[in-house]
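Bug #77: duplicate submission created two jobs. Keeping one. Sequence:
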Amino acid sequence: MHQIKLADNIYFLGFNDRRTQLFENIWPIPNGISYNSYLIDDDKIALVDTVERQFIEDYLDKIETIIGERSIDYLIINHMEPDHSGALKAIRARYPEITLVGNKKTFGLVESFNIDPGKVLLVNDNDTLSLGKTNLQFQTIPMVHWPETMVTYDETHKIAFTGDAFGSYGTLDGGVFDDEINLDFYEVDVMRYFTNIVGKYCAHTQRAMKKLSGLDIKMIAATHGPVWRTNLDWVLSRYTKWSAYDMELGVVIVYGSMYGNTQKMAEVIARQLSVRGIKNIRVYDSSKTHSSYIINDIFKYKGFIVGSCAYNNALFPNVETLLSTIEHMAPKNHYLGIFGNFLWNGGGVNNLSKFAEMIKWDLVYEPIEEKGSLKADKFRMCIEMADSMADKLLQTTEPETGISNRSH
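Kept job's structure:
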């Protein structure tokens, strides 16, 4: 069996999931996803995280190919989410003398999953563990994106095992390391993974990156996606930018429309934005595009304009779902416009106005509500809304986006 090494005694134990269609049973993953685990073969043997349970049999075979009949001394649990702890029970059964390594919150979750932890080693920030030649240090990074999440830093080889942080959607199609793949293929999947999974916890991500900045990191080994050994700045700079809500000049327009009247308003707004020089414009029909992709662009662009027809005296259902997701993710610092359409009773724009009050973004223009087909006065207001949004964006100075990585 072909073995992939991060260092002389550190092995990549990853599996590609090409069958699952929805990650966390929510987020579309048309390009699949990988589950990454790592084995450190030293005087003492340690596993860093495990894999999703569907891969248990092959996972155990991979481990045995490397260590034979020897036992594993430690299982380090950076993250207890089932896609990384799915093989934990099987590992405990195969290696009953193994010691589980984690923090206090880790073992609370272990018990919640009805797993007998057996022997445990409780670690806190800056605690260390020697495996022989390899020395490990532990740093907690809570809420990136679960409360128990931590980073295991290999002081000897300068490798940070980061759990879900710096991960990505997408399978590893041959290449495992960042310098073996075309990063352009992963651009959207890395960002969509961040916005869907980590994006709610941007402040925690900022604190985690500041905490880890004192480590001399030469390689980042996450539990999803490629291992970063050459282009660390590629992923670090993006996490810095996204977690700071450092957005590009552009507008996301989303609408919910049954018979096209609300869509016409969206098209007028989009065209006028283009006339005003805004080039990054994304128009989405909420019935056709999953919120995973829309949220991604909302994190990317500073302007957001949303329209809804009235549907049973309420919001169009797909728009309502999107707004619920936005409320949950709580991105910040956007310019906002709202519009919509009704015929006998309202509900669309009224509820969009409630969303505007809740989200507390900068409303660039008064809400626009048309009755039936688009008429001249509301057409003019759509033009004016686009102008107001363009004015706000064009007076915004885009800050620098790059950061330097101390290891390069």
